[in-house]
Amino acid sequence: MAEGQIYKGKDLRLSVDGKTLYHSTSCQISISTTLEAIATKDTDGTVNVPSNYEWSLSAESLTADKAAASTQNDFFDLLQLQLQSKEIDVEMTTGKSGDILLKGKAYVESTSISAEVGSSSTSSFSFKGNGDLELSRLTV
Hints:
Distance between the termini: 13 Å
Shape: globular
Number of strands: 7
Pfam family, one: Phage_tail_2
Number of domains: 1
CATH topology: Elongation Factor Tu (Ef-tu), domain 3
CATH class: Mainly Beta
Number of helices: 1
InterPro entries: Phgtail_TP901_1
């Protein structure tokens, strides 16, 4: 990506075990750092010291059956991974060389389907990171 260009939401995608999510509508990654508060008799304020971090991903998609020969994951694939308690590889990237690449190991933490009258059915997923989150640039 050229310096200063903004990433378009439609370009950033989540992939699970190398396959993107079928009919994905949104994805998000969250990283939070635990801060240890230190106060002593020799300080007037509290000093915060960064400690460990944890991360998670979430995604939404339209609920649809993918083609048998598809190279994508759908609701049923991710539900199966959750029920098997399988550790998976997750990535968030545009797929373009030089762009941001976030990747790591995770578990499918939750899956759900929502179906409202007059609307397309949607699926929601959350993933809990397991270990380090790697940040790099994609090289294709």
